[in-house]
Amino acid sequence: MPTKIGFDSGSDFRRRFRFDAGWALRLARRRALALRGRLSEGIAALRARGGRRGTAGDILAAPDGAAAAFAAGGLFRRAGLLIRPLLRFVLARNASILKFAAVGMALLAAAGFLAQWLHSGAGVENAQPPEAAKPAPRSSEWVKIPGPFHLFSLSAPLVAGQKPDYDARRHSTGGGREDFLAFGQFDGRAPFVRFAVYRHGSEKTPESAFYVEMARRAAAIGISIDRADPPMPQTTRFGKFEMAALSMLKGRLARDNCRGFRLVAAPPGVGIAGFACGADGQPLSNRQLACVIDRLDLVSARGDKALRDFFVASEPRGAAGCAESGPSRRGTK
């Protein structure tokens, strides 16, 4: 065992310092090699048993010698405590041997700290997080309405003579209803128009940016948004809409003459959104799209007075320069 180091001077100190410094460096090297070997064995054993990487606590608990490595780390820490006063002394000297020994002893102390840090598990996380528990399957929040009654109609010249594909769904808990009117096919040369009219219920509807909502609605029908201009406000009979030019993709087919639009939630809780693509590659302007939106009308309110009043109140308004806005049918039922 090394002798106790004192802070005397002269040849006696140098002789004892060389002996103790050499012993400390050899001990650090042996302990570091042992720690590396034991850790490798412990990790390999854990992988063989469970197939995943564990935390430091998992390795420590393994009955294959890994715990012994951390016990050796405890010796590192105790040795580091012993050499701390010596480090303060040698760092104040200029001799090369002292500086070399100081570096080695600092490494020794660091090794002890690392071992204790690993032993406590602080700062160590799973390299691979455990698989999250899968949530229990639940029924969809939205339920499709079979053979829905057509609450809305669109009589715009852009889709004149076309019969819409009409779908509707209802929120299972909040009672809200969303109706979809689609005209034409995206992969054709004719106009493609899709409206979604959402009568809000008591369900919560998180807010989203214009592009996010357009991308979500397009994805629902197998279309992606390749490019979108910043949305601009446009006045319609229902209020101010957000509108923007869109480039849309479906497989290898692209249409860059489309526009997206939305009215987030006008009182009494009515949202209108969708897409419109012109015929033969011709784009629609915001004003032309506003004229199309103005021709959306209510067929029957089905007892929803607030919805009926919303459409009746919008009758005097409309985009400037359009033909007659909205047919005379204002659902009164």
Summarize the structure.
Helices cover 37% and strands 23% of the residues.
Give a verbal description of the structure.
- With 333 residues, the chain is of the alpha+beta class.
- It has 7 helices and 11 strands.
- α1 packs antiparallel against α3.
- Strands 1, 3, 4, 5, 6, 7, 8, 9 and 10 form a 9-stranded antiparallel sheet that branches. Strands 2-11 form a two-stranded antiparallel ribbon.
- The protein folds into 2 domains: 110 residues; 172 residues.
- About 15% of the residues have low confidence.
- The longest helix has 40 residues.
- Helix content is 37%, strand content 23%.
- It is elongated and about 100 Å long.
Which structural traits does this protein have?
11 strands; 333 residues; 9-stranded antiparallel β-sheet; 2 domains; alpha+beta; single chain; 7 helices
Uncertain stretches: 51-72, 117-139, 325-330
Structural class: alpha+beta
Give the quaternary arrangement of the chains.
single chain
The 3D shape can be described as elongated
| Helix content estimate | 25-40%
Report the radius of gyration as a whole number of Å: 38 Å
Major beta sheet, specifics? Answer: 9 strands, antiparallel
How many strands appear in the DSSP assignment? 11
Number of helices: 7
Fraction in beta strands:
15-25%
Mean pLDDT: 75
Order of helices and strands: HHHHEEEEEHEEEEEHEH
Domain module count: 2
